[in-house]
Amino acid sequence: MGIVSRGFTGRTRTDERLPPGQYLTEDFPVLSAGPTPRVSLDTWQLAITSESPTPHTWTWAELTALPAQDVTVDLHCVTKWSKLHTPWRGVSLDLLLADVESVAEYALVRSYGGYTTNLPLADLTDGQAWIAYQYDGEPLRPEHGGPARLLVPHLYLWKSAKWVRQIELLQQDEPGFWETAGYHNYGDPWREQRYWGD
Ligand SMILES: Nc1nc2c(c(=O)[nH]1)N[C@H]1C(S)=C(S)[C@@H](COP(=O)(O)O)O[C@H]1N2
Ligand SMILES: [Mo]
User: Fold this and answer.
1) Which residue blocks in the chain are alpha helix, DSSP H?
2) How far is the CA of 75 from the centre of ligand 1 (A)?
3) Does residue 9 have a pLDDT over 60?
4) What is the pLDDT of residues 129-175, one digit of tens each?
5) CB 58 within 8 A of CB 96
6) Cα–Cα dist 198/195, whole Å
7) Is the pLDDT score of 4 beyond 60?
8) Distance of CA 106 from the midpoint of ligand 1 (Å)
9) Domains located in the chain, CATH noted
10) How far is the CA of 186 from the centre of ligand 2 (A)?
């Protein structure tokens, strides 16, 4: 049989994966605005709250019993480092939001330790966001957000709240910790939305 040329294999060049103003890093820097909270898996809980009086909650056993996805994504930090092809395992927000009925258009994400960040609810759906609990085949280390963190790789990494505890669905946008301090409200790395006014 002859060899059929398949043309492009879908691989993209590294420089095409690097948003404007970013540089590549091989290591995995830790950026935390405060001390690393230690959360016991016995009491750990994730809640999705909305205008409905009954929150949707998952214990650690419940979360990790759900079907998980393995995803390899690029990370872009507003401090200008990017790390390509990072391997995570977690539960898609599409699955967690499936039974949540809400007219909300915004989400405010709250972490153990008090950190918050906001984003449109649409940015958490359609295969764009996960509650990640493994990195590179290992339990997610506490300094990187373990037991579990939000992973929203298409936005700057400050939106990927470590030690995630609650996703509050809101009808009005409410800026989080860095957004209140002058970071961009949306944070698209491809449009270089670093700071308020960008
Ligand atoms: N709870 C919490 N989540 C957080 C932060 C934080 O300080 N607290 N820092 C954010 C910022 S600014 C970045 S760049 C990434 C860093 O993730 P890493 O430490 O795993 O690299 O976490 C984001 N999530
Ligand atoms: Mo950051």
Assistant:
1) 60-65, 93-97, 177-180
2) 11
3) no
4) 999 999 999 999 999 999 999 999 999 999 999 999 999 999 999 99
5) yes
6) 6
7) no
8) 20
9) 41-191 (3.90.420.10)
10) 14
